[in-house]
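Protocol step 4 of 6: structure prediction from sequence.
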Amino acid sequence: MNNNIIYKVTFTVVLIISSLTFSCTDDFVKISPEYSIDSENYFNSEGDYYNALVAAYDLLQSTYANAIVGEFASNNTLCGGESATDVVGWQQIDDMIHTPTNSNLKDIWNWMFAGVQRTNYFMEFKDKTEFDGKDEMVGEILFLRAYYHFELVKWFGPIPLKVDERFKLGDETTIPRSSVTDVYAQIESDLLAAISVLNEIPEETGRATKGAAQALLGKAYLFQDKFSEAASVLEDVINDGNYSLVEDYNSIFENEGENGSESVFEVQYTDVEGADFGCLQCSEGNVAVGFSGVRGYDGPLFTPGFSFNVPTQDAVDQFEPGDLRKDVTILDIEAWAEETGATYTTGNEHTGYFNRKYIPRKRSADAQGDLNLTNPNNYRAIRYADVLLMAAEANNRGGISDTKAQQYLSEVRARAFGDDDHAVTLTGAALTDAIYQERRVELMGEGHHFFDLVRTGRAANEIEGFVAGKHEVFPIPLEEIEFSNGLWEQNPNY
């Protein structure tokens, strides 16, 4: 999404900043210097609300960090990079030795709270001006607030909640961290309200829909083991018929597959607005893609990157013979080089494999800035295949219907193998394991596996260095604990 509004903020900074700052683009260059954009003279027109909505969407682009870290925190990939000291915070997370001073975890905290702040700013003044279509905008804001809160609670556990008004100076010492239960209750409330007003077809590509809100609600229920509720709302998405699996799995992750029939919600990126390492969250491109690219690459189809997020042999071995997803998900660089004549160099923890779904492709002639930071690959945040597998899990683990679970699981597998010979007839715990396995291979490289392992209690047995009772969540940034003046306690064992 093009960046119409820039509102850079951390949780501590939002306690001081209360006005929007704008980029020097579009009509804002016409604003005279003495004109102050703040809550007293903003939200006076539909255009003001639309720009604030764009600002709320804009922080989604920062979730590139959530996606890549969520992958190498799991047992799917290693951190990689140039050396063992390349992006030290990421290396620590990969090795499960991260601490409250980890700057990369602080980024995730800051950027997701910036998203919350932007949505609360909109909601604080949602009744100031009336116009047709505002209810749908409010629905989108509620979806986005739920999205940011969901990211925060799954990463950090209990978090401070403030609803429909911005955090301000002093809140850090008066607003406690709300329980996980209360955070999820707010997420559920926001999504149910969003579902009641959102359209099934977006007004513009990339904007949230009723189906996106239903799918996120189903995921929130699943993370709480509310299986009946999850099954019900996820089956609504399935039965509404607005989404379907595309025939060609590979096409999902190429440009032509963006915002297609399988896309329930995508984070939009572009390569025509550049960025640099001075402000990674300012990039309009998908930063994670460049970081996951092949180091020193010279050859067809792809462009070079920084060799982070390298799949392990164990991850590669999870694919069954004949699974068409393997070659889409995993780039075997040695085999590719032999086939095409491509050349490359190796980096830290080189395994010979790369996350093919999200490595840089050849780009447009209009690409600007550091091309490693401005890749246009959209992040497929919620795919229909994910919805089917979540519905299968909810039906199976909730004791609702193994028949439905088999049906949804088999639908995903039919696409994966290109036939109907791989349908699943398992029941009970064996079916549960099959669903877990299918989620791993279907969604590999997309940043979900760590949280799947955590929420199902399997992480300690699967992730090297994972300590039960500690690593289920990440530490609250140390300075946030200090700013609270003793109001907040650190997560256990950090």
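Step 5 (inspection) to follow. The two ends are 37 Å apart (CA to CA).
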